[in-house]
Amino acid sequence: MSLILDGVGKRFITKHRVVHTLENVTLKINQGEFLCLLGPSGCGKSTLLNIAAGLEKPTTGKVYFKEKEITEAGPDRAVMFQEAALFPWLNVIDNVEFAMRMSGMPKKERKEKALQVLKMVHLTEFQDSFIHELSGGMRQRVALARALTMDADLLLMDEPFAALDSQTKNILQMELQQIWWDTKKTIIFVTHDVKEAVLLADRVIVMAANPGRIKKEIKIQLARPRCLESLDTAYVEAQIMRELKNEVEKVAKAEYDSDWDLEKDTILLGPDHYLGIGL
Amino acid sequence: MAYELGVEYLKVWQPNGFPSPINIAKTLEILLVDHTLGIAVLTSITRLAIGYGISLVLGFLFALIMLRFKALQENLSPLLLGLQTLPNVCWVPLAVLWFGLRESTIIFVVVIGSTFAITLAVESGVKNVKSIYLRAAQTMGAKGLKTYQNVALPAALPEIINGMKQGWAFAWRGLISGEMLMQVKGLGEILIVGKEKADINQIIAIMVVIIVLGLMVNKLVFERVEANIRYRWGLD
Ligand SMILES: Nc1ncnc2c1ncn2[C@@H]1O[C@H](COP(=O)(O)OP(=O)(O)OP(=O)(O)O)[C@@H](O)[C@H]1O
Ligand SMILES: [Mg+2]
Question: Is residue A84 one of the residues assigned to a domain?
């Protein structure tokens, strides 16, 4: 067992209100598993990932990584943030070397390894560029390379490809699938793209909002390597969509009958209302 | 040309209150030839370098201490802002009482003028660093001083450089006012001598020297560092 979330809940208390972001999330992630968290905007995916990273403390419940309780962030759990979070004062290779420098690895070894991972994401030519000289997709690849240098067994990825065009996205998804296959890392991957989840995941955890919780768990048992064009992938995707749709209708009915307060209503009527009800 | 027009034809300026550029150049030449200027520039610049160097060290140190202890930060920030409004000259009498008429007195005036500008810039620069950088660094194993050295300070550098520039300007002011009031060798002293001789040429000549020196350092040091930062961050 790699990561265990045990009854995790999270409330944010701000000046204006108390936000109940997560409630009783219990989840076990196996060593080497590729897990996708799928859910509407605001259901607490990033919060859950930050808790696993140790950047945020759960209000209730406990989180264990390799049988040890998580108390702080550390290099044994690599994180790829929603925005690339690269350092603008360093060039590409120095960014990639950062974690290794922090761990005190000698210069020569560091450089060798950095070049090796830059090769994996096909960016060796840009090693001396500064971050603002790269496209969004290249930045995400640098961020991925940086995360890979850490040799962490667990890789936490927060919608890393969400802001990219579909071609770039697809290339990176394929690269990630390959890298995961080669390195046997455990990956938790946040997305709100069903296609992406089906393409990458061994298991998809569907989350619902208000409060954020696990709604459904779906195993994806397709052969790898998977590709977007294959019929199998499309078939499973349609299946999940259908299941989600049933879910949407069920939940909508139940929730329509019960008392809805104004705040929940506005959220349901928002742009995410389809995912919001369904998940 | 413009000068001659003003003085001779329009009579707007008095020749002894607003000297001709030619006379200023002549005075500069005299000061150069008898080595007064060279020696004065050297002593002044040495003082400045020592004073500014101390300011940098103290400025960063104070800032780091303030950042480390929140209570200090809340109490000291307004005090430092208040102290900043105090012109350097005000410190001269106090410094003379404390140190006497010595070299260290002027250095003290230089240091006290520029340290706080640097402290405030470092402190606010580090506080304004995007939290995503710090969080990212944390997940990569950066801790304590390493975080400051590798993330917080480099990320705050654009703001810190501004504070260092401001500190540099304050250091100059402290230096010249100190030298003027204490009459020790240096550019400030030549200014005062100029005043006592009622030699407007000398006064303006020294002012020009001070401006040129200031501009040179700005061009050679600060602008280069800034250009480098702008290039790295893509701010152009
Ligand atoms: N630091 C915070 N302070 C207060 N509320 C917060 C904080 N962080 C998150 N929240 C709240 O928690 C909820 C979930 O936020 P989170 O960022 O985890 O959503 P998400 O599922 O990642 O959404 P998205 O898909 O848009 O990234 C939101 O309602 C948000 O307002
Ligand atoms: Mg998010």
Answer: no
**Amino acid symbol at A134:** L
Consecutive H or E run containing A158: strand A154-158
The residue nearest atom 2 of ligand 1, judged by CA position, is A12
- Residue A66 sits in the same domain as residue A179: yes
Domains of chain B by start residue, with CATH: 20-232 (1.10.3720.10)
The answer to whether B154 contacts chain A (CB < 8 Å) is yes
CB atoms within 10 A of CB B11: 8
Closest CA to B74 of B112, B111, B127, B115: B127
Q: Is the CB of A110 under 6 A from ligand 1?
A: no
Give me the number of domains chain A comprises: 2
Q: Does A131 touch chain B (CB under 8 A)?
A: yes
CATH number for the domain spanning A38: value is 3.40.50.300
Regarding whether A110 and A64 lie in a shared domain, the answer is no
Place of tokens 């000259």: B89
Q: Do A140 and A210 lie in a common domain?
A: no
Q: Which residues are registered as beta bridge partners of A91?
A: A130
The answer to whether residues A100 and A142 belong to one domain is yes
Q: Please provide the average confidence, as pLDDT, over all residues in chain A.
A: 85
Q: Which residue has the higher pLDDT, A215 or B11?
A: A215
Same domain, A124 and A172: no
| Per-residue pLDDT tens over the stretch A184-207 | 899 999 998 888 999 999 999 988
Which of A89, A138, A157 is the mutation pick for testing B, counting most B CBs within 10 A? A89
ipTM above 0.95, yes or no: no
Expressed as residue numbers, the domain containing A60 is 3-76+152-255
pTM of the model: 0.82
> For residue A219, is it within any domain?
yes
> Are residues A178 and A136 part of one domain?
no
Weakest-pLDDT range from A127-141, A232-246, B173-187 = A232-246
- Domain identity same for A169 and A131: no
Out of A59-68, A83-92, A167-176, pick the least confident: A167-176
The alpha-carbon gap from A75 to the nearest alpha carbon of chain B, in Å, equals 5
Ligand 1 contact, A71 CB (< 6 A): no
Tell me: do A67 and A161 sit in the same domain.
yes
Does residue B90 sit in helix, strand or coil?
helix
Which tens digits make up the pLDDT trace of A5-14?
Answer: 999 999 999 8
A34 occurs within a structural domain: yes
CB A153 within 8 A of CB A31: yes
User: Would you tell me how many other CB atoms lie within 10 Å of the CB of residue A119?
Assistant: 11
Q: In what order do the strands lie in the sheet with A34-38?
A: A77-80, A154-158, A186-191, A34-38, A203-208, A213-219
Q: A57 — contact with chain B (CB < 8 Å)?
A: no
Q: Report CA(A191)–ligand 2 centroid distance (Å).
A: 9
Biggest CA pair distance of chain B: 74
Span of A153-162, A185-194, B96-105 with lowest mean pLDDT: B96-105
